[in-house]
Amino acid sequence: MKKPLRKAVLPVAGLGTRFLPATKAVAKEMLPVVDKPLIQYAIEEARAAGIEQFCMITGRGKTALVEHFDIAFELEATLRQRNRVEAMEALKGTMVEPGSMVTVRQQVPHGLGHAIWCARAFIGDDPFAILLPDDLVLSDTPCMKQLADAYNETGGNVVAVVEVPREHTNRYGILKTGADDGRLVEVQGLVEKPAPADAPSNLSIIGRYVLMPEVIGHLAKMERGAGNEVQLTDGMAKLIGNQPFHGLRYEGTRFDCGDKVGFLEAQIAFALARPDLAAAVRAFLPKYS
Ligand code: G1P
Questions:
Q1: What is residue 46's DSSP assignment?
Q2: Does residue 289 form part of some domain?
Q3: What angle separates helix 38-48 from helix 143-154, to the nearest 10 degrees?
Q4: What is the pLDDT of residues 130-150, one digit of tens each?
């Protein structure tokens, strides 16, 4: 029997140095794409996959992330008094069930694997999702829902994957692939950020995972990998052979919002996907090309 997927971990402790000065006093996950912060896209995507419990791995200077999902009493009272229906509607996605969101602090920046290990008490013995808010996916079916559906088919671990140019393998976790039906691919090995010459394929992991709790035991050993960090990819690699492990070629377009150009492209793509903005954006775009 597969345990249902109900938990999501969201690592948000990064310093966001690539977006300074914007991220000096504002968490990078609070930067908006159009009018919604990155963290809210991630929470809404998780919710659309049936996830009910959320754990943000935070750090110093990240309190706005917690505030964002709390009731803003004065604001809501003022909006109600002024009958600002649209504005009240805009706040709906920020409401979470009481007690459904917790935070854990990653006191030291020892890598993504270490961040996930910090959520071990929240994860317990359950399967869990990971969403990296920097990776934003525009798709018909939310990317995490596609992963949850794949998990219900295959059981075990499932990661979202996409082909990247070979010269970019050193930016991502890369798969060594087995049986491949064009959609689901069996994972035979995983390498974090290999040089193009050493990469076992050009199939890369994006920031969407469904993992089994056993990964925590491997991460707990705190073995250092690429960049001298505790790598999630290395912990996941230890599961291969003991549990099903698949990559899912998701439907949709991924934007790397940790990168300036990726972030700008996401603004345009998400604005064009919005019925209230598409025409106006389409009208000005030719001026800049
Ligand atoms: C992390 C993971 C990497 C994955 C990537 C997806 O890298 O370590 O395996 O491919 O996210 O965005 P980071 O972007 O934190 O360097």
A1: H
A2: no
A3: 40
A4: 999 999 999 999 999 999 999
Nearest to 12 by CA among 52, 68, 93, 50: 68
Range of the domain at 106: 7-274
Vertex 236, ends 231 and 240: CA angle to 5°?
145
Q: Give per-residue pLDDT as tens, 151-174.
A: 999 999 999 999 999 999 999 999
Does residue 1 fall inside a structural domain?
no
Q: Classify residue 285: in a domain, yes or no.
A: no
Question: Residue 142 is part of a domain; what is its CATH number?
Answer: 3.90.550.10
Nearest CA residue ID for atom 7, ligand 1: 172
Closest atom of ligand 1 to 206 CA is 6
Whether the Cβ atoms of residue 262 and residue 270 lie closer than 8 Å to each other: no
Q: Whose CA is nearest to atom 13 of ligand 1?
A: 172
pLDDT score of 228: 94
Pocket of ligand 1 (CB under 6 A): 112, 132, 135, 172-173, 192, 204-207, 231-233
